């Protein structure tokens, strides 16, 4: 045994102990990938459960009676009919009244209709934005 073997023997064992071989390194990387994949599957499963819960809520809301859940569609239909009348039907009726010499139908007061529609659409959007950002808890 020479001096070089005496010095390099313990150093080689230390190196083997703390520096993994290529096979050990590959095995460790494989284990890390397995853990990442398992985490991805858990996240996907959580998203799927959340989507299913939202679908169940949508089904329950679709079966509610008009007294509890019908106000928003009612206000939406009123605003939609009002806008359709004022922008489509009333101009056509005005044109027809000029041809047939009958009184011109009245225009609606859009000063109250547009803020109502903007509030209906805008407040729903703001509430959704607040829920997404976590300002409002999801149960309220």
Describe the secondary-structure layout.
Layout: H1 3-18, H2 22-62, H3 66-69, H4 71-100, H5 110-133
Helix pairs in contact: 4-5
Explain how this protein is built.
- The mean pLDDT is 76.
- Helix 4 packs antiparallel against helix 5.
- This protein folds into two domains: 1-63; 66-140.
- The chain is built from five helices and no strands.
- It has 140 residues and is mainly alpha-helical.
- Could you tell me the number of beta strands? 0
Low-confidence stretches: none
* Quaternary class: single chain
Count of domains: 2
Order of helices and strands: HHHHH
Distance between the termini: 80 Å
Structural class: mainly alpha
Number of helices: 5
Portion of residues within helices: over 70%
Q: How can the largest sheet be summarized?
A: none
What's the overall average pLDDT, rounded?
76
Outline:
This protein is mostly helical and 140 residues long. It has 5 helices and no strands.
Features:
140 residues, mainly alpha, 2 domains, 82% helix
């Amino acid at each position: 045994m020479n001096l070089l073997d005496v010095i390099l023997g313990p150093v080689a064992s230390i190196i083997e102990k703390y520096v993994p071989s290529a096979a050990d390194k590959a095995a460790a990387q494989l284990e890390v990938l397995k853990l990442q994949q398992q985490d991805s599957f858990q996240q996907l499963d959580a998203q799927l459960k959340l989507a299913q819960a939202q679908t169940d809520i949508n089904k329950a809301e679709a079966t509610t009676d008009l007294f509890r859940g019908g106000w928003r569609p009612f206000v939406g239909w009123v605003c939609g009919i009002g806008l359709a009348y004022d922008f489509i039907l009333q101009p056509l009726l005005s044109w027809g009244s000029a041809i047939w010499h009958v009184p011109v139908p009245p225009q609606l007061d859009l000063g109250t209709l547009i803020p109502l529609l903007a509030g209906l659409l805008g407040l729903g959007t703001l509430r959704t934005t607040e829920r997404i950002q976590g300002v409002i808890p999801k149960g309220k």
